[in-house]
Design goal:
single chain, alpha/beta, Rossmann fold, 6-stranded parallel beta sheet, 8 helices, globular, hydrolase
Length: 307
């Protein structure tokens, strides 16, 4: 895995080496097509309100895990892999940045992947919406780990979705949203196979999980405490490019960087990274054919006594 200080030309070399894997031959086709792009300015302004105008505690009481301990989600099927996506602020239901990434992962393991889009608003009311997202994600991870102990989970997040995933995985004292929504259990944390984030507002340039053309001396607009992802080191890629003012808080007014992930190859690279972490393809035994008139049941073996 490349460190937070590896960017520029080394990213390009790493991208080429990973995407040449034979198992990824169909990935390019799955990643093709135009996607509607969110408005980076709207996302930035909404994210800043998380700290400028924090929500009153009583407004988020319904998501408090201590006051309301029952999970707010139902268990899903026990597939070998569960891919959970958390979309960015204002992204439409269809043609999201993370959709092609999830589809490429599913294509690599036909019949083995359950996909779930995290049910949260992803709107500009981030204090409330992202808190709901964090509670929903934590409950989902914990319930799946209990119901399906052999299932492995892949988490994909973009922009506000990256904030939601990151805060859910982090300790409560390192969160901006969802401080009281509970914690990921030890079993659930162990079940997480890979985490891929794009345009993370809580990006920390010095963390080893960073990947891309960013400056390691520059953080996101809402950086989390360094080392918050230490427990997921080796399982996480936090993608950021140098002109993305969400994950690289600068005075630049250029907005193209935050939507560059749609066509800069990082969708493909994120999918490739996850696919290389999947286990061997499950071999399924071929069912024995049903007896027919043309194909009668086998006769007793030679020499066997027939009663």
């Amino acid at each position: 895995m490349l460190s937070g200080r590896t960017h520029g030309a080394r990213f390009s070399r790493g991208l080429r080496s990973v995407t040449l894997l034979g198992a990824l031959a169909a990935t390019a086709a799955l990643l093709a097509g135009c996607a509607a792009e969110p408005d980076p300015t709207v996302a930035r302004d909404a994210l800043r309100e998380v700290t400028a105008e924090p929500a009153a505690p009583d407004a988020l009481e319904e998501y408090d895990a201590e006051a309301h301990p029952e999970p707010i989600v139902e268990p899903l099927e026990c597939s070998p892999y569960l891919v959970i996506t958390a979309r960015g602020t204002g992204e439409p239901k269809k043609k999201q940045l993370l959709g092609p990434v999830a589809r490429a992962i599913s294509a690599a393991r036909p019949g083995e992947v359950e996909r779930l889009e995290l049910d949260y608003p992803a709107d500009t009311e981030i204090n409330a919406g992202a808190t709901l997202g964090a509670r929903t994600l934590i409950d989902t991870l914990n319930l799946q780990a209990e119901s399906c102990p052999d299932q492995r989970t892949i988490l994909l997040g973009y922009s506000q979705g990256a904030l939601v995933i990151g805060d859910a995985l982090a300790a409560s004292d390192a969160r901006l949203v969802g401080v009281n929504v509970g914690a990921v259990s030890e079993a659930a944390a162990e079940s997480v196979l890979a985490v891929v984030l794009y345009g993370n507002p809580r990006f920390v340039g010095a963390d080893p999980s960073g990947y891309g053309s960013y400056s390691p001396d520059t953080n996101g607009i809402l950086p989390r405490p360094p080392g918050s992802f230490a427990g997921y080191e080796g399982r996480l890629r936090d993608y950021c490019v140098s002109d993305d003012f969400i994950c690289q808080a600068t005075l630049s007014m250029e907005e193209a960087g935050h939507v560059a992930y749609y066509d800069n190859g990082m969708q493909s690279d994120g999918a490739a990274y996850v696919i290389t972490r999947l286990g061997p393809i499950t071999e399924r035994a071929e069912p024995e054919p049903e007896p027919t008139e043309e194909s009668p049941s086998p006769s007793p073996s030679a020499g066997a006594e027939v009663g």
